[in-house]
Each structure stands twice: as structure tokens, then as C-alpha cells.
Amino acid sequence: MGTQHDRDLNPNQEHKGKKPHSHGEEKLNGTFVSVMLLGGFILVTWLAILFLYIDRA
Amino acid sequence: MHIHRLEKIWLGIGIAMLFVFLIAIGIGAFAKGDHPPGHHEAIKLDPEKVYETPPFDEPRLEQIGENEYNAYIVAFIYGYNPGNIEIPVGATVHFYVTSADVVHGFAIPGTNVNLMAVPGEVNQLSHTFTEPAEYLLLCNEYCGIGHEFMATTITVKG
Amino acid sequence: MQKNTDSKLALAHILVAYTALTLGGIAGMLQGMVRGGMLELPLGIGYYQLLTAHGVLMALVFTTFFIIGFLYSGMVRTTGPLLPTVNRIAWVGFLMMAVGTLLGVIMILLNEATVLYTFYAPMQASPWFYIALLLIVVGSWCSIVAIASQLRYWKKRNPGKLSPLFAFMAMSTMILWFVATLGAAVIVLFQFIPWSFGWVDTINVMISRTLFWYFGHPLVYFWLLPAYICWYVIIPKIIGGKIFSDSMARLSFVLFILFSVPVGLHHQLMEPGISPVWKYVQVVLTFLVVIPSLMTAFAMFATFETYGRSKGAKGLFGWLRKLPYGDVRFLAPFIGMLIFIPAGAGGIINASNQLNAVVHNTLWVTGHFHLTAASTVALTFFGVTYWLIPHLTGRTLTKGVNRMGVALTIVWSLGMALMSGAMHIVGLFGAPRRTAYTTYNDHPTALSWLSYEAVMAIGGVILFIGIIILVISIIMMLRAPKGVEEFPIGEVNESAGTTPKILDRWGIWIAILVVLILVAYTVPIMDMLNAGPGSKPWVTW
Question: For the CA atoms of B89, B90, B94, B99, what is the dihedral angle to 10 degrees?
């Protein structure tokens, strides 16, 4: 098995003194829409069971 | 620690949604009394003596009001005592259920009646039967080799 | 990569895991066909015996062995060869777990333990079944000691440096596992073994159930977290991208440590003897454990989008086209991620206090965990296996075997869509789980379930075809051409920022976890201790 150590997993070393700000943030609109769709799915399925429960009560 | 602006918004929305769910079920449970089944019984049963301990010394359906009943039911391998219960449509039944042996389920498909019958404990749940039908009441917790035969009926006459 | 004792260690775990999966898969397929009305079991085999075998082999043996083997291999990859003592402890653990597994399987085959993998009291199996479980649990503790020792040694050699992300996550998983298995160990050691040997007459049923689920819920996170390790650490390297955020990934694992454990009551919402207040408290805590998964969803999409845009993708979803769908190392985990969407949504529903009445003990629940464990986690593990076995054996992942992996992923998804889909629907109609073929005397309600149960059976057969593809793949991997197959480890995104040191240690988080457990469980357990005389044994099969 390999004996590599991953220097790159130590962001402390690479970004000493640098503080990233929201300028230069990645474009993540596709991500945002995707998670909102996911949230929507959770909402719709939860409401469906809530209504089923209320209907059966 | 850097968190992307859109991630903050997403988590804000997601967490808010979860809290809305919690408030909805919390209001249902604590304001409207619509708790999950349970009966916080101070006196714990000896399962060996269940048939000697009231009310299960006489498992029965007992009318207590205009269209209101208490049902004292013992689950056992592999049936319910009493079984083949008959009630008029619109009846509200307060189920009190225990087990004479192992853990059983007690569930009526198509309704919210779904609870665990645990030896030594009494579980409680109320339901109003608004539709006439012959309902299946079955055991949905594995209890042994006859588990798939363990069922009875509740006939709502209307 | 050369064969040596570290590789053999990981490989041994993985091959035991897949042996268990195969046997468990045969059981599962047969169960599905029985329930679908297509088969009667031969040779006096009992349905519930088969079901016990299926649950134990899939949910306890396949998972635990694979996870420990995977984590060992990743520790070597990121922290160097295992210390000789670590390697020895690891082998001791493997042997204990293997002996326990064998003993447990024998008791199940002898029909001495037809109690299902949850072994609820007062059904009583042979004491040797409980001893088998104890051996598996204690054997697994050796892996905790092994990984902790290995990481401590790495930290001594690398003072002031952040642990490798894989190692941090592996250790977090192991901490979770230890805290969880304490519950299983307590009931097996102090309740079931004395009771089944006849040293005590009765057992407190509610305590045994509650401690089981104190273990049983974090158990599922013990399964999920290694899948998340693949998603966070390995997948970015496979696609040629970067880890989106080291800190947020660690934070998610910290939140899992905190909120996976003090939530077991959500498996007991329909039970008596537990105050509705405490049920609700644990429901609230359960909802908190959703949050790290919401974070993970964002991180995964962000990883893909960032990579795709770096390759010139445009528009809202152009990045989707840049992903390596033809590479099983990506495809299987990716499909696992997508499946986690309905899987997680179902979980939130299940935990919703009184709403649980709609689904409790119905086939909906079975559908749910066949998405979470048997699809998301399993597919991710399969995706790992296709490069890990070549990596460990000094061989390569060939194009042919890769294609088999892609086929497996498609077959598995199809089989599971049919089976789990049907289970979710028929569960809403009230069909009970863990129940052999029956029509309850031809009751119309039960008859209405039959067509769904037939679809479940077909899905199960398709899944078994998937298992055959998987077994053939493994055999081919063990005979593939020699070479070097990388163990992919991702690099962190440049703009991810620095990771706070508090996300590289566990003391504080374990302390908070202990407080949460005490808050969530003290009153319910005290109530249960104040019980009647308890139950005598029952052997109902």
C-alpha cells in the first residue's frame, strides 16, 4: 500500500495569513438550485404524509 | 471558517423547514393532545399474571358513553382477546392493549391505529371509526412462527 | 501496490464482507419470492430463520467487515504503514469478529436464534447467539484501538499539522461506533447472556429495547459515514476536481458524532412506557442530525459544479455533462448520492413523532432502509471495491471489469427502484414488514397487497442478478493483470480557507455528546427501571 502523505490536506500551511472573502467566491448557482429542489422534495413528501395522517385521523 | 454565501442561505432555509415541521407536529402533539400511542402507567404489570390483573382479567369491549367505548385487549401468540370486535359507525374507541407473552404489533391498515403491545406495559390509543367497513387488525411485529396468521377483524356497522 | 500484511488485513475484511453479502443476498431473494407468492421454501427452512440470516449478514456482518477493511486501507494510504502492534491488534479483532460471525450463523442455521437481527426480548435465542454478537462487537473494538493508535502515532510524527481528512473522518466514525456499541454490549453482557443461561429468571423488556435502539440508530450512521468519506475525500480525486471545503466536511462529521446517538427513541415512538415529552425531545435531536446531511448535499453539488465550470461548463447545469458517468468508481457512489434524496426524505417522515403511525412496522420502513443502507451505502461501497481490491492486490481495474461495474450499478438501481418503490407504496396501505406470505384468510385488504408484493419479488431477483455480477467482478479483479491501481485521495480547494483546530480534535465533542446522551436518556431509562418483575423467556419458533 502507498505511503503518500497528503500535504495538500493541510490548508493551514497553504493559506497562512490569507482570509478569503466573498469576492472570488465560486459560482454555485447550479448547486443552489439543486439543493433547493432537494429541499422541495423533502417538503412535498413530508406534507403528503402529513395530509395522509390527518385524513386518516 | 469560510462558508459560501449560498451555503449559508441553503442551510438557513433547510433548518427553518425542519423547525416548521417540528412546530407542526409539536402543536399537534402538545396543544391538540395528538401524541404517539403510549400510556405512562405507574403500575407495571407482571406479564405472568396479566389475566389476573384488572382490567385484563376480563378482556372486553365496554361501552362508556353515547358512542364511546373502552377496549381492553390482550395480544398473545397468535391472536387478540377479544377478537372480531363489532362497533357502530362513528364510535370512538379507547384501546388499552398489553401482551401476555412477547412483543406484538397492533395495527389497523388504512388508519392511524398502530401501536406496540409490550408485556408488562399497557399501551393506549383512541380512534373514531367514521367509515363502515370490516377492518383488518393485525400484528406487525414479528412474534414467532405463527406471526403471519396473527390478525382479527373490527367490523364497523353503519 | 505490493501485497503485505496491511493489504492482506484489509482484503481479508473485504472478502468476508462480500461472502456475507452473497449469502445474505440469496436469503433476501428467497424471502422476496416467498412473500410474492412465487415460492415455498424447501428443506424445512423457515421464513423467519432466513430473515434473521438476511438481517444479520447484511446489516451487521457485510457492513462492519467492509467498513473496517476500507478504513484500515485508507489509514495506510494517508498515514503510512500500520505500526506492527496496530497490525496485530487489527488481526486479533478480525479473528474475533470472524469467530463470532461463524458462531452466529451456525446458531441461526440450527434454528436456535430465529429472533431477527434486532433480537427483541422476551423472545430468547440460544446463549451462544448472544455470545456470537458479543464477539463481533468486542472484536470490532480492536479496530477502534488500532485506528486511534495509528493516528496518534502519525500526530506524534507530524506535530502541529492537521490530520489527513480521511484519518479524521475514520477516527470520528470509530468514536461513534464505540459510543454506540456500548449499548449493545451492555444488553448482551448484562441482560441477554445471564438470562439465556438461566442465571436470572426475567428480563426488563423496555430497557433491552431502548438500549438496543440507543445502539441501533448510530449503527446506521456507522454505515453512512464511511460512504460520506468516499464522497468527501475520494470522489473529488476520481473526477479530477477538489474537495470543496475541508472545514465544513469535518464539521459535518462532528455534528454526526453529536446527534447520531441521543435519538434512539424515534425507533420506539409507538411503544408504551415512554413519556411523550421525551419522545418529542429525541425527535427534535433527530431532526438536528439531518443538518450535516444537508451540508453534505451542498458540498457534493458544489464539488461537481466547481469542477465542471473549471472545465468550461456553462449555464445552470452544464457541469452535469462533465462528470465521468462511464467510470464505476464515480457512477456507483453518484447514484448512491441521488438515491439518498428519497432515502433521507423518508427518514425525516419516519422520525416525525405522531406521523410515524402511518409507517411504523410497515413495508414502507423496509423500503426506506433498502434505499439508505442497501442502495446509498451499498452502491458507494461497491464503487470503492472496484478500485480497492485491485489496489490492495497489486493489480489493475480493467476496462472490462469497469463495464461490469457500470452494469451492476444499473441493474441494482432498477431492482431497487422496483422493490423499494413497491415497498413504500404497499407500506402506506398498511402491509406489515417482517411477515411471511399470508392473505389473512383472504381478507380483501391483504389481497390488495399481493400485486405489490409480486413486484417486490421481481425487484429482489433483479438485485440478486446484481450480486452475481458483483461476485464475478470480484473474482475477475483477483485475477486481473498486475499493476498499480491508485487509492484516490482528493486535494482541498484553494479557496476553502483554514480549518479551525477545534475541528481536528474530539475531546470537547465527546464531552458534549455525553451530556446530550444523559439529557436525552436519563429520565426515560429511570422510568423503565421502575418497572414490574420483567418477562420470562419465550421461544416462539
Answer: 30
Q: Are B107 and C430 in contact (CB under 8 A)?
A: yes
Question: How far, in Å, CA of B13 to CA of C539, rounded?
Answer: 51
Between C5-35 and C47-55, two packed helices, what is the crossing angle to 10 degrees? 150
pTM comes to 0.95
DSSP one-letter code for C158:
S
CB pairs under 8 A between A and C: 131
Quick: pLDDT tens for C328-352. 999 999 999 999 999 999 999 999 9
Task: Decide: C206 and C273 in contact? Cβ < 8 Å.
Answer: yes
At C97, the amino acid letter reads M
Query: How many angstroms from the chain centroid is the CA of residue B35?
Result: 10
Q: Please, are residues C509 and C258 in contact by the beta-carbon 8 Å criterion? A: yes
- Asked if C135 and C198 touch (Cβ cutoff 8 Å), the reply is no
* Binary contact (A36, B13; C-beta < 8 A): yes
C73 shares contact with chain A (CB less than 8 Å): yes
Confidence label for B43 from pLDDT (cuts 50, 70 and 90):
low
Say how far residue C376 (Cα) sits from the centre of its chain: 9
Could you give the residue ranges of the DSSP H alpha helices within C39-83? 47-55, 63-79
Cα–Cα distance, B11 to A51 (Å, whole number): 26
Strand pairing report for B85-88 and B151-157:
parallel
